[in-house]
């Protein structure tokens, strides 16, 4: 099935300046390249997204607010539907998200997964429930996440039983300073701390270091330390990972970061503790909108005393800076890249709800995205502003928060190396203004 034939024709209308013409995800297609000559490219699956209401992205910019999706797979020849996703909404919050799998043998649809979400009056996600697990989030008066507890369903007792729990603490600037993790013992019905991470900041409220501890024989024992160094523009220029053992500290690896004139990362050099030369070189290129165009990784080859290409990722974008095509290649030697995977996204025109910009609204730019180790924040204000910046993941958990002083232009390069790979949203609160933008972290 040609996915393009599934996309209806859309008519572009001339609209007034009070509307914003954008786009929303309509279809996604995955391809792989066959490893057997002549290396044909094969479509593996594709998804079509259906919107019943006038919406596109969630307010936090992390989720497409489609009502349902149809996934086609080559196993169900000729490209039949093998999965259906259906959602329900309250305003722009997703309340339920259910997926069904095509059981061709029994000629019926089986429920594969179902998620239920609840929110508080501030829009914070307070619970995520499936058939076998439940996550409960608690926030303080400042909307900072202070507890994140995971439960599993016990069939024998017909009740929820504790599994893991995170408790978080913040300092006066709103920066996360402690993330303590505990596990639940059903035998003793008690929670036991097993790991904690302490976060330390410099005078500019930028992350300076993290210490990871494990609880052994009732005492906290340090196991790992990560240190960060910055230039005068507050861009991360180096980080080091140190492991601790009974014999003392050992530097496990070092990374050095170089930037272009636009403060995009040009290259990352990775060193192992015992190596005199970088064991890896990662090179990046960007377009005029700071979107990443290429990401090339080369690894050091001791036998040739040189670097051999290893992996290449390329990206193209539409006018809204959404990814159109992502290709992943591996180096096959003989000056040839072998294309292993391709993702294609199709978008439809989306006419945003008319809005009147606030007089003091700011223009936020985050780059690069996807980001690997460092991301830059640029904001311009129509009037002097001071406020707070926070980073949340898609579950609503806040990973970092800090304040910025009164300014009409804000720029800062922040480390995202310690964030797990995934989608995040950065929210900036000023004097009566609120801006939110999604970004992605890859490692």
Describe the structure.
The chain has a domain at 20-119 and 314-351: Lipocalin (Beta Barrel). With 443 residues, it is mainly β. The chain has a 22-stranded antiparallel barrel. Strands 23, 24, 25, 26 and 27 form a five-stranded antiparallel beta sheet that branches. The model is unreliable at 1-21 and 353-361 (pLDDT under 50). It has strands at residues 21-33, 41-50, 68-73, 80-90, 93-103, 108-119, 125-129, 133-139, 145-154, 159-170, 176-185, 190-201, 207-216, 219-230, 236-245, 248-259, 265-272, 280-286, 292-301, 306-317, 323-331, 337-351, 363-367, 374-393, 398-415, 422-429, 434-441. 18% of the residues are buried. The chain has no helices and 27 strands.
Which secondary structure elements does this structure contain, and how are they paired or packed?
Elements: E1 21-33, E2 41-50, E3 68-73, E4 80-90, E5 93-103, E6 108-119, E7 125-129, E8 133-139, E9 145-154, E10 159-170, E11 176-185, E12 190-201, E13 207-216, E14 219-230, E15 236-245, E16 248-259, E17 265-272, E18 280-286, E19 292-301, E20 306-317, E21 323-331, E22 337-351, E23 363-367, E24 374-393, E25 398-415, E26 422-429, E27 434-441
Antiparallel strand pairs: 1-2, 1-22, 2-3, 3-4, 4-5, 5-6, 6-7, 7-8, 8-9, 9-10, 10-11, 11-12, 12-13, 13-14, 14-15, 15-16, 16-17, 17-18, 18-19, 19-20, 20-21, 21-22, 23-24, 24-25, 24-26, 26-27
């Amino acid at each position: 099935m040609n996915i393009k034939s599934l996309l209806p024709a859309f008519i572009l209308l001339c609209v007034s300046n009070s509307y914003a013409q954008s786009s929303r995800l309509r279809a996604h297609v995955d391809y792989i390249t066959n490893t057997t000559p002549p290396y044909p490219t094969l479509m593996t699956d594709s998804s079509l997204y259906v919107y019943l209401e006038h919406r596109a992205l969630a307010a936090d910019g992390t989720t497409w607010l489609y009502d349902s999706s149809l996934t086609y797979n080559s196993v169900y020849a000729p490209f039949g539907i093998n999965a259906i996703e259906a959602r329900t909404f309250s305003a722009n919050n997703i309340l339920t998200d259910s997926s069904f799998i095509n059981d061709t043998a029994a000629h019926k649809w089986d429920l594969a997964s179902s998620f239920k979400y609840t929110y508080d009056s501030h829009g914070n996600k307070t619970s995520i429930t499936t058939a076998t697990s439940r996550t409960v989030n608690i926030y303080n008066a400042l909307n900072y996440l202070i507890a994140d507890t995971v439960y599993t369903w016990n069939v024998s007792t017909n009740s929820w039983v504790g599994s893991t729990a995170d408790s978080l603490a913040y300092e006066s600037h709103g920066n996360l300073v402690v993330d303590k993790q505990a596990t639940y013992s059903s035998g003793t019905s008690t929670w036991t701390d097993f790991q904690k991470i302490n976060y330390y900041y410099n005078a500019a409220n930028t992350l300076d270091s993290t210490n990871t501890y494990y609880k052994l024989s009732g005492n906290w024992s340090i196991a790992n330390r990560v240190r960060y160094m910055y230039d005068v523009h507050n861009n991360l220029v180096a980080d080091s990972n140190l492991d601790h053992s009974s014999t003392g500290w050992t530097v496990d690896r070092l990374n050095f970061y170089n930037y272009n004139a636009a403060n995009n990362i040009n290259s990352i050099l990775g060193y192992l503790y015992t190596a005199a030369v970088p064991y890896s070189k990662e090179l990046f290129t960007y377009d005029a909108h700071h979107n990443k165009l290429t990401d090339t990784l080369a690894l050091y080859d001791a036998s040739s005393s040189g670097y051999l290409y290893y992996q290449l990722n390329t990206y193209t974008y539409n006018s809204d800076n959404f990814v159109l095509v992502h290709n992943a290649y591996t180096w096959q030697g003989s000056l040839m890249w072998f294309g292993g995977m391709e993702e294609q996204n199709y978008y439809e025109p989306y006419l945003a709800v008319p809005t009147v910009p606030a007089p003091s609204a700011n223009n936020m730019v985050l780059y690069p995205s996807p980001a690997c180790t460092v991301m830059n924040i640029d904001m311009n204000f129509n009037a002097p502003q001071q406020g707070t910046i926070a980073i949340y993941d898609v579950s609503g958990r806040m990973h970092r928060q800090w304040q910025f002083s009164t300014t009409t232009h804000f720029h800062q390069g922040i480390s995202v190396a310690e964030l797990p790979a995934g989608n995040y949203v950065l929210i900036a609160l000023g004097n009566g203004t609120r801006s939110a933008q999604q970004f992605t972290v890859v490692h």
